[in-house]
Amino acid sequence: MEKIVILTGAGISAESGLSTFRDEGGLWAQHRIEDVATPEAFARNPALVQGFYNARRVQAAQVQPNAAHQALAQLQRDWPGEVVIVTQNVDSLHEAGGASGVIHMHGILSGALCAACGHRWTAPPEMAPDEPCPACNAPSGRPDIVWFGEMPYHMEDIFDHLTTASIFAAIGTSGEVYPAAAFVHEAQAAGAHTIEINLEPTGGGFDERLLGKATETVPRWVDRLLMAKT
Ligand code: OAD
Q1: Separation of CA 169 and ligand 1 centre (Å)
Q2: Is the minimum distance from the CB of 37 to ligand 1 under 6 angstroms?
Q3: What is the pLDDT of residues 124-157, one digit of tens each?
Q4: Which ligand 1 atom sits closest to the C-alpha of 9?
Q5: Model confidence at 230: pLDDT above 80
C-alpha cells in the first residue's frame, strides 16, 4: 500500500502562534544562531542558551495544535498505507493534534540531554545554566535539541522511509537547512511524487505545489488524498 512521508517545518506551527525562523521578524532575525544554537555557544554562555530555549519551552506549552496538525493526524488514521511524519520542529504540536510515531529530527523542547553521559529525561519548564543530570550528577543538562554543527537524529530511519515512499510532502519549511532540504531529491530518486505545501514556493524542485496557509492547504490536501482512496 502506498506510503506517504511528510516533512514539516516551522510554517505548520506558525498559525498556532509560534515564530518561524527565517520569515520577517522570525527567530533568526532576533537572535544570532552562533549565540544560541551551537555547542560552542552553550560552552561559552550556558545561561544565554538555556534562557533562549526556556522562553521557547514556555511559549510552546501555551499554544494549541491547528487544523494542519489535526489533518495530518487524520491522514495517519484514515490512509490505508503508512503515513510517516518527520518534523524539524521542536514543539509537540503534531502529538497534541493526535499524530503518532512523529520523528523529531532536530530534537524536542520537552527533552533534556546530559552533555556528559548522554542520559535523557523530561526537561523542567526552566533549565538552569548548570542543570544537574539525574543519572550522573554532572552539571551538564542541556536541551535535547540538535544545534548547528550537530548530526540530526534518526537519519537512517528517515532515509529508509524516503526510499520506500510513494508520496513525499514538505510542509511549511524553507528548504534552507540540510539534510532536510535534500529529502525531496532522495524521495524523487526513489520514484515518489513530491509536493510542496507552503505560503510561497521554495527552490526545491517539487513535482507539485500547493500554495497558501497551512491551516487551509493541508486539510484540503488530506481531503483530496482520502477522497481519491474511496
Ligand atoms: P523557516 O523559518 O526557515 O521556514 C518557514 C517556512 O514556512 C517558510 O518557507 C515560510 O514561507 C513557511 N510558512 C510560514 N508561515 C506559513 C503558514 N502559515 N503556512 C504555510 N507555510 C508557512 O523554518 P524551517 O524550514 O522549519 O533548526 O527551518 C528549518 C530549521 O532551521 C529549523 O528546524 C531550525 C532552524 O534553524 C534548528 O534549530 C536546528
Answers
A1: 14
A2: yes
A3: 999 999 999 999 999 999 999 999 999 999 999 9
A4: 26
A5: no
C-alpha distance from residue 200 to each of 9, 130, 141 (Å): 14, 42, 38
Output the nine-digit C-alpha cell for 176. Answer: 534552507
Whether the model pTM is above 0.85: yes
Backbone CA torsion sign across 22, 27, 30, 35: negative
Domain chopping of the chain, boundaries: 1-17+65-106+152-230, 19-62+107-145
Q: Which listed residue (31, 106, 119, 154) is catalytic?
A: 106
First CA to last CA across the chain, in angstroms? 14
Q: Relative to the CA of 148, which ligand 1 atom is closest?
A: 39
185 is catalytic: no
The superfamily (CATH) of domain 1-17+65-106+152-230 is TPP-binding domain (3.40.50.1220)
In angstroms, what is the span from residue 10 Cα to ligand 1's centroid? 4
Which superfamily, per CATH, for 19-62+107-145?
A: SIR2/SIRT2 'Small Domain' (3.30.1600.10)
Rounded percentage of the chain residues whose pLDDT exceeds 70 = 100
